[in-house]
Amino acid sequence: MTDDERTGSDPDSFPRWLDEHWDADLTLGEWWDRLGAAGWSTPTWPREWSGRGLGRPAAVQVVDELRRRGLPGGATGVGVDMAGPTILALGDDEQRARYLADIARGRTAWCQLFSEPGAGSDLAALQTRAVRDGEQWRVSGQKVWSTLAHHADFGMLLARTDPGVPKHRGITWFVLDMHQPGVDVRPLRQMNGKAEFNEVFLDDVVAWDRDVVGEINGGWATTLTTLGLERAASTRIAGVGEPGATAGWRERRAGDFAHLPSAGEPPARRSRGSRLIPLAADRRCLDDPGVRQDLARAYTANQITRYHALRQKAEAAAGKSPGPSPRKILAYGDATFTADAGLRMLGPHATLVDSEDTAAGDITELFLFAPSIAIAGGTNEILRNLLAEKTLGLPREPDPERDAPFDATQAGRDRAES
Q1: Could you give phi then psi for residue 186, rounded to 5 degrees?
Q2: What is the largest CA-CA distance in the chain?
Q3: For residue 218, how far is the Cα from the chain centroid?
Q4: What is the rounded CA–CA span in Å between residue 395 and residue 379?
Q5: Which of 137, 320, 340, 388 is the right S-S partner for 207, CB 3.0 to 4.6 Å?
Q6: Which one of the listed residues 30, 230, 315, 397 is annotated catalytic?
Q7: Mean pLDDT, residues 8-13 taken together
Q8: Coil, strand, or helix at residue 98?
Q9: Per-residue pLDDT tens for 331-365?
Q10: What is the pLDDT of residue 239?
């Protein structure tokens, strides 16, 4: 990163930087490289690790400026949202140097190798084993619901490295090379017709000591950091497209993703419910009392979410830990209500969507996608348990196998029999 790219008052220098560096004829990959090299793709990250060291309010100004101009931001995905921040928080400098710059530039794609067929709600019951072999580990097992694993260069892998201790204490968090022999990725078709999720089979694949993030057998603490990032989506600033070479976004023209911004509320704070107003106007039903009630409910839900975020920011500024966030539960409510209200406005047209009716297509897509929000990043029921225990101080849900050695639990016995 050059010195003149670092000069100026952040984020006030960003508009001038855009004036000097935006070029619609760049490929998206070239534009991501420029944003990442200057620290604007991940502005909340430290300056020495591909960021600009901005606080969240200043970073929101960055995304507002991008969207005000209708320009694409950096690449999105698991790398920016979870892997990078986890490595920043708990990795070492060698790992940060090896991975963070490519994540910020959208050069590598990442996936999450956490959940298993028998370890979803109880993630600590995972059965994938890693056996030490010198400075490396031999890993075998099965993962499921791994988003975009078919495009991933690296995976955030949870594997059991000590089955003789209680299930939460014998887990290690690895970076796994997804292109090596023995990694078999099989897409899962969803009800919206897409195949974003995958099941992943690992057959004697290699993970290295140098790619352990956190401590060997201490991966549960690293896992909690990653899950907290996933539930809050707290690091995503702005972006478009999938990173990495396999997905094909890097070769596309950056100017094709520029667009005129919508009027109204500042774009960084626009909610899913904001889709309903233009839809109601297009369908000429703004005077319908039921529609107006739906719009009022969507606005109210958005304000509740916004005030909750402000409360959390105030607690963080005061040095308090905000604890588990209900933002995912609120997002699920926002999405499902928006989809239901939109379908009511569309009526029979919701079942006859063609490629030219983008408003109807967006609502129908949201309706089919919304149920996954209640599952992704841990189910809403798990999150409610965390809120009850950590925020309200209620007793922990009973788990008779919590302190037993993993091999003595039902999951351990199942693994031994398989």
Answers
A1: -125, 115
A2: 71
A3: 23
A4: 19
A5: 137
A6: 230
A7: 72
A8: helix
A9: 888 888 888 998 999 888 777 655 455 666 778 88
A10: 66
Scan for tokens 């549960």, then name that residue: 220
| Amino acid of residue 279 | L
Give 144-194 pLDDT, tens digit per residue.
Answer: 989 899 999 999 999 999 999 999 999 999 999 999 999 999 998 888 778
Per-residue burial over 168-205, b if 16 or more Cβ lie within 10 Å, else e, is: bbbbbbbbbbbeeeebebeeeeeeeeeebbbbbebeeb
pTM (predicted TM-score): 0.83
Contact 243/79 with Cβ under 8 angstroms?
yes
Question: Of 15, 65, 67, 73, nearest to 42 (Cα)?
Answer: 73
Contact 60, 54 (CB under 8 A): no
265 is catalytic: no
Q: How many Cα atoms sit within 13 Å of 378 on the Cβ side?
A: 26
Q: What is the DSSP string of 109-142?
A: -EEEE--BTTBSSSGGG---EEEEETTEEEEEEE
Preceding peptide of 400 cis, ω within 30°: no
What is the pLDDT at residue 400? Answer: 86
Residue pair 182/150 in contact by the 8 Å Cβ criterion: no
Query: Of 231, 254, 215, which is closest to residue 74 (Cα–Cα)?
Result: 254
Structure tokens given for 364: 């129908």
Instruction: Evaluate if residue 373 carries a pLDDT over 90.
Output: no
